[in-house]
Amino acid sequence: MNTLHTPDQPSHPFATLSPDRVLDAVESLGAYSNGRCMALNSYENRVFQVGMEDAPTLIVKFYRPERWKTAQILEEHAFVATLAEAGAPVVAPISYQGQTLHEAEGFRFALYPQRPGQAPELDNPDHLFRLGEMMGRLHHIGGLQAYQHRPVLDVAQWGRPAREAVLTCPWLQGSQRTQYAELSDQLLARIEQIMAPFADQWIRLHGDAHVGNVLCRDDDMVLVDLDDSRMGPAIQDLWMLITGTTMAERREQLSELVEGYEQVCEFPRAQLGLVESLRTLRLIHHSGWIVQRWQDPAFPQAFPWVKAEGFWDQQLKLLSEQSQNLTLSMDRMLQV
């Protein structure tokens, strides 16, 4: 029997991260700001744009306390540096005093160059081709060696903890809790079976490759924010870029992505059968993530509907639909 708890907490460490503390942290490295500090949209971490004296503007990322071990952050930094050195279009952390990870008043933080730009257009064939080529470059290098410290995209690490968080929160009403428990357990067990034969194909990924983590400006396109980078199937970095509302649109998007990807490396066509499993895993993870982060004041402000009964009715409906979709291969659906 799960014990219900409320995720509400009176305070959060990020509440102490004032603009003055942000500027003090940057200047502790010997870099001098011009006093301008603007918070940027970010939930998992806290990210600020800081103006500098006689130097380009910096982006400063403060890591969520207790989420990553230092070795895990440094491993991600090393991967991004390797990608940048190989010519892959990524934004790498800046090294100050020979280090990319710093600490101030209990917070670990990193500095990045500012890269202005807009999200790519997923109805633009040229953008899709370039996205595919970009992911091909990342995966070619990502497959050369494995992470030793960062997690794996699987049910045990990404699915079951999120499910437990949902089941122990107080917001599911009446039969919703029983339905969610049974349905999510069945789905996660099925996903484990579907993904198991592919485990030897896992590589280092971006991990959260949606359009918000790609910046376009003129002819440049760069990847940002590998904070969710982990081991997993290559298709994880591609399926969220297929957003067409009709079968024909999705087929065309996938075709452009594949053509770009295969400029660099072979497209993992067999992994198309994992797309619905990954979609389902993301649905479960996302709702659990919100519950787990509820003590952070940013989350109740951004996701107030999570406490509503109707939200969980919708989640149950989506998961029920996914129970039918798990047996479908995108390869077969799109006939590519």
CATH topology of the largest domain: Transferase(Phosphotransferase), domain 1
Beta-strand content: 5-15%
Question: How are helices and strands ordered from N to C?
Answer: HEEEHEEHHHEEEEHHHHH
What's the total helix number? Answer: 10
Computed Rg: 21 Å
Extended strand count: 9
Largest sheet: 5 strands, antiparallel
Unreliable stretches (pLDDT < 50, length at least 5) are none
Shape: globular
Fraction of residues in helices?
40-55%
Enumerate the strands of the largest sheet in spatial order, edge to edge or round the barrel: 1-2-3-5-4
CATH superfamily of the largest domain: Transferase(Phosphotransferase) domain 1
Structural class label: alpha+beta
Going by CATH, the architecture of the largest domain would be Orthogonal Bundle
Oligomeric state of the chains in view: single chain
Return the domain count.
2
Q: How many angstroms does the end-to-end distance come to?
A: 46 Å
Mean pLDDT rating: 93
CATH class of the largest domain: Mainly Alpha
